[in-house]
Amino acid sequence: MATIKKEIPVIGMSCAACAITVEKSLAKHPGVKSAAVNYANHAAWVEWDEKETNLPQLQEAVQHAGYELLIADLEAEDLESIQTQAYLALKKKTMLAGLLALPVFLIGMFAMHMPYANWIMWALTTPILLVFGRQFFVQAWKLAKVRQANMDTLVALSTGIAYLYSSFNTFFPKYLLGKGIEPHVYFEAAAVILFFILLGKTLESQAKAGTGAALKKLMGLQPDEVSVLDGKNETVKKTNQVKAGDTILVRPGQRIPLDGSVLEGNSYVDESMLSGEPIPLAKAKGDSVFAGTLNQNGSIAIRVEKSSQQTLLSNIIRRVKLAQGSKAPVQQLVDKIAAVFVPTVLAIGVVTLLIWGLSGIEEAWLRGMLAFVTVLVIACPCALGLATPTAIMAAMGKGAQMGILIKDAESLEKGRKIDTLVLDKTGTVTEGKPSVTQFYPTAHWNSEHAQIIHALEQRSEHPLAKAIQTYFQKEAGPIEIQDFQVKVGKGISGKIKDKTYRIGSHAWLMGEKVNPNTVLSTQVEPALEQGAILIYAAENEELIAAIQIADPIKAGSQEAIAQVKAAGIEVHLLTGDQAKTAQWVAEQVGIPYVKAGTLPEQKAAYVQALQAQGKKVAMVGDGINDSEALTLADLSIAMGHGTDIAMDAAGVTLVRSDLRQIPALLELSKKTVSIIRQNLFWAFIYNLIGIPIAAGVLYPSFGFLLNPMIAGAAMAMSSVSVVGNSLRLR
């Protein structure tokens, strides 16, 4: 039997509970083997037997639940356009709802006795409910049809009942006045609640607007067009039309479009997107090259070995996509509570109505209806709905002040559970750019040599030349160079005042009959053991200096790692660099676990292996090669100076690229979760006490029946207390 597994976009989901509903609808459909719906990227990964079902049938099943599967093969740009339009529409509705809700609130709180106050509030509130807040009522109805409930249900019920009751009292006030009851209205409660809920949805949608940006930028690394060589003829083709065995031409400054091997030419290729290492590699005939890497300074002809769908870059894109979709949808705490809370409140309201109605007292059913409305008003989800987002917003604001940008609430919440920290080396623990860290002059060195080395390196296109130029910048001056030569992968040479100067590798200089220097060899031995790069300079047959180039350790890395370890968190170092260098860096900063020479998929596998041991893993990185591991980690942290792709894949960005911000992030996470729990506790205590009183539990003993107006005020006070508690984070 043929099985198909595919990612399918889903539209219409407004909360994590929606994702659960879609997932259940798909999972129970005949022929579906597995279904996982991710609310974060609004997509479903579905595996099904094509003999038992098909896409239109799956679409119909999801439509029955009130949502929509986009089964047409859409380009990434089309899907992004749909999501952008939805966000802009939501933003517009929120702004318009706010403009109408403000005067309703002011009249309801401070000018309720002005002429035609109720009519003005009704006119302003009606479009808020029927136009701007329509989605909540539609969603509540869809959920009711499949016997589900969430925050949309609470919003629709409380605002809908408040609106209908207030409208009745506006159009027919004499009915209640004739019964000796004041016809209060609650338009301001309905209007303000809907506005705040819409505002929360808009902020959430805005935060999620960039979830697909990492994939989009990864895809952008592979050129759309490529120059194909057929003999002496050169034609331009689409990259996806090129096949294995074709020959392509890549010029300086262009990205390599496909995996292959060099047929002709020499160049340096920046492979930092794969290895994370900043130093480009020399490429000559027979060397392998990879899609997405950057050809720097020489034209090279490449024999294609893999099609566009099989390249290493395509595999990275595929794995990041799977990693995003593989995260099980997290049912938010408030939605879980709402699933039980809503039917409970409804049941209490109905029981309250029946008990009052059948009590036999005067105006029993009218009193019962008032008690029913009071129960729904006091059980309004405002405090419950604000408990988490207000704390999250306050924490995000505090984080921003500290230079910590937090993308979503989930990342902030997970920080407190982290027990393992995985650090990329280059650009994370170290500066991420090569520089001269040590200079070793010999007895043959003199002050003029610095000016000569600077002049020679100015002509070099080698990736390390810039570091040497910078080091000798103060000695810069005009020097006439003759017979300048570049030996790719070896070094450079030139004649100055009848003397030959060479700068390059030790092996090349020895091959050029330069005399060895035992004193210098002894001096540089520790540097070689720690994996540093050494460039040698010679005048004629004598070595005049050795230049040590390395990636310096960042200030604060050792301090930050010590703080993290003191908190009981295990620290690991991952790098694409050689083992010697990695081990030396780890020893300098106090990291006990090291893995060197890792490719992107190996970094991801390392994170998964730790998670398989039951560990909660935070991953810190700054490059494209870290994106898959960042996506898989429980908490992903990107360095602010790193690539956009790493920052898009991560949940947290450290603006100053300072590891000392990590302990501050973990502490902020703990405090935020504590505040959220306090908020939820008080929101529940409020309902636990308020609902029975609203139902009339005190009436038999004390003759007290809560006025719906007081219930509305109590609801407002509960919201104020939650907001005030959240602001303590700042």
TrEMBL record:
<dbReference type="Pfam" id="PF00122">
    <property type="entry name" value="E1-E2_ATPase"/>
</dbReference>
<feature type="domain" description="HMA">
    <location>
        <begin position="4"/>
        <end position="70"/>
    </location>
</feature>
<dbReference type="InterPro" id="IPR036412">
    <property type="entry name" value="HAD-like_sf"/>
</dbReference>
<comment type="similarity">
    <text>Belongs to the cation transport ATPase (P-type) (TC 3.A.3) family. Type IB subfamily.</text>
</comment>
<dbReference type="InterPro" id="IPR018303">
    <property type="entry name" value="ATPase_P-typ_P_site"/>
</dbReference>
<keyword id="KW-1133">Transmembrane helix</keyword>
<keyword id="KW-1278">Translocase</keyword>
<dbReference type="InterPro" id="IPR008250">
    <property type="entry name" value="ATPase_P-typ_transduc_dom_A_sf"/>
</dbReference>
<keyword id="KW-0547">Nucleotide-binding</keyword>
<feature type="transmembrane region" description="Helical">
    <location>
        <begin position="95"/>
        <end position="113"/>
    </location>
</feature>
<dbReference type="InterPro" id="IPR036163">
    <property type="entry name" value="HMA_dom_sf"/>
</dbReference>
<feature type="transmembrane region" description="Helical">
    <location>
        <begin position="337"/>
        <end position="358"/>
    </location>
</feature>
<dbReference type="Pfam" id="PF00403">
    <property type="entry name" value="HMA"/>
</dbReference>
<keyword id="KW-0479">Metal-binding</keyword>
<keyword id="KW-0067">ATP-binding</keyword>
<dbReference type="InterPro" id="IPR023214">
    <property type="entry name" value="HAD_sf"/>
</dbReference>
<feature type="transmembrane region" description="Helical">
    <location>
        <begin position="149"/>
        <end position="165"/>
    </location>
</feature>
<protein>
    <submittedName>
        <fullName>Heavy metal translocating P-type ATPase</fullName>
    </submittedName>
</protein>
<dbReference type="InterPro" id="IPR001757">
    <property type="entry name" value="P_typ_ATPase"/>
</dbReference>
<dbReference type="InterPro" id="IPR059000">
    <property type="entry name" value="ATPase_P-type_domA"/>
</dbReference>
<feature type="transmembrane region" description="Helical">
    <location>
        <begin position="364"/>
        <end position="387"/>
    </location>
</feature>
<dbReference type="InterPro" id="IPR006121">
    <property type="entry name" value="HMA_dom"/>
</dbReference>
<dbReference type="Pfam" id="PF00702">
    <property type="entry name" value="Hydrolase"/>
</dbReference>
<dbReference type="InterPro" id="IPR027256">
    <property type="entry name" value="P-typ_ATPase_IB"/>
</dbReference>
<keyword id="KW-1003">Cell membrane</keyword>
<feature type="transmembrane region" description="Helical">
    <location>
        <begin position="185"/>
        <end position="203"/>
    </location>
</feature>
<feature type="transmembrane region" description="Helical">
    <location>
        <begin position="705"/>
        <end position="727"/>
    </location>
</feature>
<dbReference type="InterPro" id="IPR023298">
    <property type="entry name" value="ATPase_P-typ_TM_dom_sf"/>
</dbReference>
<dbReference type="InterPro" id="IPR023299">
    <property type="entry name" value="ATPase_P-typ_cyto_dom_N"/>
</dbReference>
<keyword id="KW-0472">Membrane</keyword>
<feature type="transmembrane region" description="Helical">
    <location>
        <begin position="119"/>
        <end position="137"/>
    </location>
</feature>
<dbReference type="InterPro" id="IPR044492">
    <property type="entry name" value="P_typ_ATPase_HD_dom"/>
</dbReference>
<dbReference type="InterPro" id="IPR017969">
    <property type="entry name" value="Heavy-metal-associated_CS"/>
</dbReference>
<keyword id="KW-0812">Transmembrane</keyword>
<feature type="transmembrane region" description="Helical">
    <location>
        <begin position="680"/>
        <end position="699"/>
    </location>
</feature>
